[in-house]
Write a structure and sequence with these properties.
The structure is a homodimer. The first copy, chain A, is an alpha/beta fold and about 280 residues long. Chain A folds into two domains: about 5-175, Rossmann fold (3-Layer(aba) Sandwich), CATH 3.40.50.720; about 180-275, 6-phosphogluconate dehydrogenase C-terminal like domain (6-phosphogluconate dehydrogenase C-terminal fold, Orthogonal Bundle), CATH 1.10.3660. In chain A, about 50% of the residues lie in helices and about 15% in strands. Chain A contains twelve helices and eight strands. Chain A has helices at about 15-25, 40-45, 55-60, 75-85, 100-110, 155-165, 175-200, 200-205, 210-215, 225-230, 235-255, 260-275, and strands at about 5-10, 30-35, 50-55, 65-70, 90-95, 115-120, 145, 170. In chain A, β2, α2 (about 40-45) and β3 form a beta-alpha-beta unit. The longest helix of chain A has 25 residues, at about 175-200. Chains A and B meet through α7, α8, α9, α10 and α11 of A and α7, α8, α9, α10 and α11 of B.
Amino acid sequence: MQFGTVCIIGPGLIGGSIGLGLKKRNLAKTIIGVGHRIVSLEKATKMHAIDIGLLNSDEAVKDADIVILATSVNKIIDTAKKIIPLMKRNAILTDVGSTKKYIVEQISHNLRKDITFVGAHPIAGSEQRGVEFASADLFEGCTCIITPVGNHTDEVETIAHLWRLLGAKIKYLTPEQHDEILAFVSHLPHLVASGLINAIKEEYLVCGASGLRDTTRVASGDPELWVDIFCQNRENVIKSIDRFIAELGGFRNDLLNKNDAKILDRLKNAKLSRDSVFHNNSTNK
Amino acid sequence: MQFGTVCIIGPGLIGGSIGLGLKKRNLAKTIIGVGHRIVSLEKATKMHAIDIGLLNSDEAVKDADIVILATSVNKIIDTAKKIIPLMKRNAILTDVGSTKKYIVEQISHNLRKDITFVGAHPIAGSEQRGVEFASADLFEGCTCIITPVGNHTDEVETIAHLWRLLGAKIKYLTPEQHDEILAFVSHLPHLVASGLINAIKEEYLVCGASGLRDTTRVASGDPELWVDIFCQNRENVIKSIDRFIAELGGFRNDLLNKNDAKILDRLKNAKLSRDSVFHNNSTNK
């Protein structure tokens, strides 16, 4: 019960998994879910991801000790602005957005003195959306990046503690560091997956096997959600594209110049780096 | 028993799976495996992927009705040249190589009049190698491309029939068509996966989650094997890189020019195309 009343705005895949994780570990007194579709709130309630579902955030946030913004990134800032005036004294506001600089800037700018905002981003999820894919253990073993600003150490520690209890490893970064790193490890791979599909003629795609399927899996993610992520991290994403095109250009030159030893080096280097990070390599054959 | 004595040169992941598939369905009288490592031949024999394992191909091919070249692509041509003079009259020679134009050209050039070569490529496999990963059902539902040249309809039909019995769907293409298509659906994705890893700083990689893991899975494949595939399909791979860089450049321009509607279109288009091909989307969450 240590986190008191928790309000999850947007109990979908991520928000719903937080709810399930808190319930499973008995960490919250009450979990209030706020959504804009009755059917989703019903699902979330039936799954016990939330105790109560409300369509309006005004009522929902006023007694909450922690409010978690778990909507898509384009709605986080507007929702925050709307609820901050209504929040309980000394409550903590946090989020799970995939970008941090813009969100942290905008929310900090609109914050009340007695409310702390702790930007967070659990690096988990899938190309699927909706509470039906939520799981109490979604965050087990994942990294949760927390981007504290200022000196609210107790509140930052509360949110870090919550994520640790849900199974995540904590990494503290500045919002700027977060956005640069995520451009490379998440936004670029997404863009590359979509670009790969678009670069292949439709009639060729049917010859693709598990390699193509996995390389492009994230391209089945929600376009509306991803366009907002790209736009909130525009400069870093452009920078990552440039770095990647330079690498591809190197490959191309080595191929053109029949520098096969250099190509082998590139492949070996990639394998070595990847194998050192993803030990538990593959669930697909 | 309809395929008589089958000789599999290189009973690894693919060759071993052919052996297991033929045995399971009782389609061959004897399966002879040829390898250069005793330990692999022992494994293949114990798994019943082959009946006998031999280190030397000379003895192995002389009674075979069908010889299947299942080595890595760089050894297929040399092996073919070596065994063609020793093969039984009217036997069929086939392969499973990931490139076709160069292999078909070179083998056709060195063929005996009474031997038919049927180029084939089952589009299956993984980043893993070795007979220990072989499975009797590896080809269930996969596409096997067959690249006939000339008029040997009976022999082509025999090999197509073999693949159909192993569960594959047959697609007939010219060697040139095969190599162009595979450059896009297999070789480019591999190169992109390796390039992605190389474009990301080592210290950033640890922040990667399942999206990055899956997008780059194939980069854990064997570098020696893949460098040969790239080199045997050089021009098509370069062409596919150019097409892909153009697509990425388009994305980059739209980002730079804040043409967010266009980015949304690109993402929607990719999702639509991908979802129409890979229905059974993901085994990973």
